[in-house]
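Q: I'm a student working through a structural biology exercise. My instructor gave each of us a protein and asked us to get a predicted structure, then write a short paragraph describing it. Mine is Transcription termination/antitermination protein NusA. I'm not confident about reading structure output yet, so if you can add a plain explanation after the tokens, that would really help. Here is the sequence I was given:
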Amino acid sequence: MTDGAKLLDAIFEIVQDKKIDKDIVLEGIKEGFQKAYEKSFDPEATVRVDIDQNTGQVKVFKILTVVQKIEDEWLEIGLNTAKELYGENVSIGDNVYEPVEFQEDFSKIAVMQVGQIIKQKIREGEKNKIYQEFLSKNHEIVGGFVKDITENSYLVDINGSIIPIWNKKIIPGEDFDIDDRICFYIEEVSRDNKHSQIQASRIHPEFLTRLMETEVPEISEGIVEVKSVAREPGHRAKIAVFSHEEGVDPIGSCVGASGSRIKNITKELNGEKIDVVLWNEDKKTFVMNSLAPVKVISIDINEENNECFIVVPNEQLSLAIGKKGMAARLVANLVNMKINIFSLENAKEKDIEIKWNGNIDEAELSNPDFLSKVNKRREKTAGNFNKDKNFAKKQDETEEIVFVEEDKSIDEIQASIAAFESLSEADNTFEFEESIDSDDDSYDSYYEK
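A: Happy to help. First, here is the predicted structure for Transcription termination/antitermination protein NusA. I'll explain a few features afterward.
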């Protein structure tokens, strides 16, 4: 029924190509013959399959129990018949093994069953191989080469294992070609997942943390610790660091000489700008550090609701919020707290208590030097905005450019939202949320407790 030499060659090829243990393949062949017998003859019958690993010959035996009186001929054999066929030493209760003849119908079913089970065993073996190989690399960075590109993912070859990284896990604006090297962070390794056992990501906050470890020796040595990370992948990130040794500047260590270390990471992240922030166990100080260069006039933290109320200079409201709320969202995710940002003017209108407990007082707020610095920054930002807008027109793009005018109150800005809702996406719109919550963005699931 079977060509022993061809069977041995097939087993060898599967073992070599799929890197699956030989015993798993042999077990699959045996299971296939057993199922074929059940389908062809009796589902309750039991059989034994032997494979000669030297010749490749397969033999199937029906297991029969020796009885005095036969009640089921598929499972039992009479004592007298058993003695005639298998010797006088056979007694009641013994098992004997009756050879099964390979008829044509049985042979076809057996081949089909063996094929199906071997494929299943191969899939299970590959899954187990990937699980064992990557379990130790969970929550680490790995790298490989793009083997193929599909509509929804890049297929990355890592030492012979093909791992998909879905497009939604790629940094916006990135584009890779076949044979390009790509590295990513492993979010999760599962033993069985119908989509992918390896959850790979280049947008996860911990991807930035691991890159910092590889680029900054002080972090890998434990001298400097990364306390928290917030990212808007491809745009901007904030990372809070702390030094465990006096005399070691955590921010300087991360930035490197002339910004060399941080530039290397920015390059890997497709130009994502990275702000390095000094972590502090005092939440108010940490929030103020995270908002820099924005000055804080008043800050009040509601511990019970994990919520922070911040008042900033009128001139720095848009800077605190950022385009499309990005700056405020990064701060909220970095400090893991809901934040509410008000300009001084708006805070007074809403009768919010001005505590003057931030990092700027009344005298400095009205100081011409402070106002001059703010105006210079606004002029520079406005210049960059005009360049971006002109470039966008040249490229005929339709992405919204969103900003907040400092000379409008929050209520006026919110009112203007409705007025612009009917505009096309090509038009500029005003967008502002007085409360910036860490649940507002699609990436914020990473920051949930």
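A: Here are two points you could use in your paragraph. Confidence is low (pLDDT under 50) at residues 388-443. The longest helix spans residues 104-135. It's a good idea to check both against the output above yourself.
Q: Great, thank you!
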